TrEMBL record:
The keyword Transmembrane does not apply. It holds the Pfam family p450. The lineage of its organism: Bacteria, Bacillati, Actinomycetota, Actinomycetes, Kitasatosporales. SUPFAM superfamilies: Cytochrome P450. Keywords: Heme, Iron, Metal-binding, Monooxygenase, Oxidoreductase. This is Cytochrome P450. Belongs to the cytochrome P450 family. It comes from the Bacteria. InterPro entries: Cyt_P450, Cyt_P450_B, Cyt_P450_CS, Cyt_P450_sf.
């Protein structure tokens, strides 16, 4: 694909070549079309922002709205009607509604609650690794990277153990990216099932509250009252959906890149305190969220000399912004000791008022998952170190993750 100021089709962003190495394409776009018009399959006029400076500004620009009700026709063309009931949450709203919802959820989803999960995350990781074969190749994604965050989220929300495999199945179906009628029907059914499930679970928590986040959310109040019934259901869905695949793919990407960069892995293993900046660098280098969720222009706006007309959708390529050489030295190199590897340097968790609410939990899960994995299996290797990794083939880049991650935990000497 040659980056020009002509519109980029979604298909060009989803070829096997692009999925294998989107960073080369983004590098071209940053130089030749940093704010690039697109022709996505849903038919809505869309612009792609790729430079760090523009991306950071756009993420907190009040002229770029997150309120789906202001662009309902475009929303329905992309997601259909069934998602509306599950999307009445802070991710899809602007101030003052966003401010109110975020304040209420923050009051229940506290740093203390997140940090208290540490021992439980370590236990879950250990139990999952107990069930993995040590000497033969297997796929680490379904055995470890995917079940770990779904179990953590179910514990956090208070989903009963017998329902957790069902939750994983529904969450995976909703997260499918595609525009085929078959995909839309499957997503609609899963969304309806999730709405019904969380409605019943919230009613149960209200009658019999427990020490979990969903019980806390049903009870939380401020001067404006509490969360409405639909806001509660939608918030539970958001926490489950947003925290599952993103963390799973982050763990998978991180393991793959550390195994592919043995000097970086050795540095982390020799100095355990590096795990925190290492996770920040891994999020910057190849995080699991390639593009931020949709925004739309409430008026004509201009970035990088390109006019984005009122009503157009805006996609912000976080993966591209995090490899911008105007912000990061040698951005295509993985460096766990990168100077200034602070949490607010990269845009992997967003920026501004919509900064990822679950970022502290995702960081903790990634840190403990990697530590537990490499402490227990220091000789772990990719099953085929010389082979090409197989990345997700999706019709619209939202997640950045591996389709599989074959490894050997303890290869024979």
């Amino acid at each position: 694909m040659t980056a020009t100021h002509d519109a980029v089709t979604a298909a060009e962003r989803c070829t096997p070549e692009f999925r294998r190495d989107p960073h080369a394409v983004y590098a071209q776009l940053r130089e030749t079309a940093p704010v690039c018009p697109m022709r996505p399959p849903h038919g809505n006029e869309t612009y792609l922002i790729t430079r760090y400076e523009h991306a950071r500004a756009a993420l907190s620009d009040p002229r770029l709205s997150k309120d789906m009700y202001g662009a309902m026709d475009a929303y329905r063309r992309i997601f259909g009607d069934s998602s509306v009931a599950l999307d009445d949450n802070m991710l899809n709203s602007d101030a003052p509604k966003h401010t109110r919802l975020r304040r209420l959820v923050n009051s229940a989803f506290t740093p203390r609650r997140v940090q208290a999960l540490g021992p439980r995350i370590e236990d879950i990781a250990g139990t999952l690794l107990d069930a993995c074969p040590a000497r033969e190749p297997f796929d680490l994604l379904p055995a470890f990277a995917f079940p770990l965050p779904i179990i953590v989220l179910c514990d956090l929300l208070g989903v009963p153990p017998q329902d957790r495999s069902h939750m994983q199945q529904l969450s995976t179906t909703v997260a499918q990216t595609g525009f085929s009628e078959e995909t839309k029907r499957a997503q609609q059914k899963a969304e309806e099932d999730l709405h019904a499930y969380f409605t019943d679970l919230i009613a149960a928590k209200r009658d019999r509250p427990a020490d979990d986040l969903l019980s806390a959310l049903t009870a939380v109040r401020d001067n404006d009252g509490g969360l409405s019934e639909n806001e509660l259901v939608s918030t539970a869905f958001l926490l489950m959906f947003a925290g599952h695949k993103t963390t799973a793919y982050l763990i998978g990407n991180a393991v793959h890149h550390l195994l592919s960069h043995p000097a970086q892995l050795r540095a982390v293993r020799e100095n355990p305190e590096l795990i925190r900046p290492a996770v920040e660098e891994l999020v910057r280098y190849d995080g699991s969220v390639e593009s931020a969720t949709f925004r739309y222009a409430t008026e004509d706006v201009e970035y990088g000399g390109t006019r984005i007309p009122k009503g157009a959708l805006v996609q912000i390529a976080l993966s591209s912004a995090n490899r911008d050489p105007l912000k990061f030295d040698a951005p295509d190199e993985l460096d766990v000791m990168r100077p200034g590897n602070a949490q607010d340097a990269h845009l992997g968790f967003g920026h501004g008022s919509h900064y990822c609410l679950g970022a502290p939990l995702a960081r903790l899960e990634a840190q403990l998952a990697l530590t537990g994995l490499f402490d227990r299996f220091p000789r772990m290797t990719l099953a085929d170190p010389a082979g090409e990794p197989r990345w997700l083939q999706v019709p619209f880049p939202a997640f950045r993750g591996l389709a599989e991650l074959p490894v050997v935990l303890d290869p024979a000497k």
